[in-house]
Amino acid sequence: MRHFALIAALLLAPALAQAQTVLNVYNWTDYIDPDVVQRFQQETGIRIRYDVYDSLETLEGKLSAGRSGYDLVVPTSEPSFARLVRAGALRPLDRARIPNWRNLDTGLMERAGRADPGNAHGAIYLWGTVGLGLRLDRIRAIAPDLALDGLDLLLKPENARRLAGCGLAVMDSATDVLPSVLRWLGRDPDSADAGDLRAAEAALLAIRPQLRGIPGSGALLDMLATGEICVALAYSGDVIQAAARAREAGRGVEIGYVAPAAGPHLFFDMLAIPADAPNPDAAHAFIDFLLRPEVIAAVSSHVRYPNAVPASRPLIAAPVREDSNVYPPDAVLAHGFVPGTPGPQAERLRSRLWSRFRAGR
């Protein structure tokens, strides 16, 4: 009898060990389908502890300090992911443990590979563009003559003054705002030139008095959804989420998204494992799980961001997969740009610029 008990204990030990495993995930706010998290836990017995952030600066601060305790993080390819790769803060992925890697779009992975040669440290989770979130009903009422297809709507001071009464906002991320402003000015989005950065600062300060806020991603989404603001420089998926919430609320708030006609800033959010992750095996298992077409389709359907698994497209909810703001036409992608990673001196200049812009002086 004791032998049977011993055998049973030995057989149960691996399952019990797995059941006690905790996967520590650090991801953007409102950036996963909760049912996907639940399904992974049920399939594997691995419990997920899920924390969120709303800016790349917050993520980098956590990881730069070391011993963050996280097993899986989702940094944007440029500049955060690129900096973390160069600093040795991320573990190279073991593709043998990620058989669903084969599902990834090779063209998109090649573009993301600019930050990570050979795609050694990350797989694309979701991606998107930076553009304008618009409360269309208010803008039509106030300024029906204004073109809605470019950053002139927000960044030209005369337009900002006309629309200030219905609320203007710029998301609190120098990383994601400055490249678009530089591109709008006809400058290199990666410029480290002090004159170019002064021009970008002047453009932002010129509209600063008209801004209702410079909120984080989550707060900006809420401001759009409730109709508190009518123009925002924001992530595409946040605006599309806000539009869905506004429709569900049924209060007549009509939200739309516009990618700049001159070519939007493209970003790729990467699944990556910190170098000191306590449970890298669990992190590999979760990455492989997320790259299943039916799983990542559920994520895209829920958060309204495109993914990099082509086989998932037919499985995504029709209103999402057929929305050209979620999946931009090839012509928009062809004109889009992926910003590079500023060097240390340029980064300091940009950081000080952003502090002055936030302070309004």
Short structural summary:
The chain has 361 residues and is an alpha/beta fold. The protein is built from 17 helices and nine strands.
Number of DSSP helical runs: 17
What fold name goes in the CATH topology slot of the largest domain?
D-Maltodextrin-Binding Protein, domain 2
* Beta-strand content: 5-15%
Basic shape: globular
Per CATH, the superfamily of the largest domain is: Periplasmic binding protein-like II
CATH architecture name of the largest domain? 3-Layer(aba) Sandwich
Q: Any idea how many domains? A: 2
Oligomer classification:
single chain
For the termini, the CA-CA separation is 80 Å
Overall mean pLDDT: 90
CATH class assignment of the largest domain: Alpha Beta
The helix/strand series, from N terminus to C terminus, equals HEHEHEHHEHHHEHHEHEHEEHHHHH
- Compute the gyration radius: what is it? 22 Å
Low-confidence stretches: 1-19
Largest sheet: 6 strands, mixed
Report the helical percentage. 40-55%
Using DSSP, what is the number of strands? Answer: 9
The secondary-structure class comes to alpha/beta
List the SSEs and their pairings.
Layout: H1 2-19, E1 22-28, H2 34-44, E2 47-53, H3 56-64, E3 72-73, H4 77-86, H5 106-112, E4 123-135, H6 136-142, H7 152-155, H8 157-163, E5 168-170, H9 174-184, H10 194-207, E6 211-213, H11 217-225, E7 231-235, H12 236-249, E8 255-258, E9 265-271, H13 280-290, H14 293-303, H15 318-321, H16 330-335, H17 344-359
Parallel strand pairs: 1-2, 1-3, 5-6, 5-7
Antiparallel strand pairs: 4-7, 4-8, 4-9
Helix pairs in contact: 10-17, 11-12
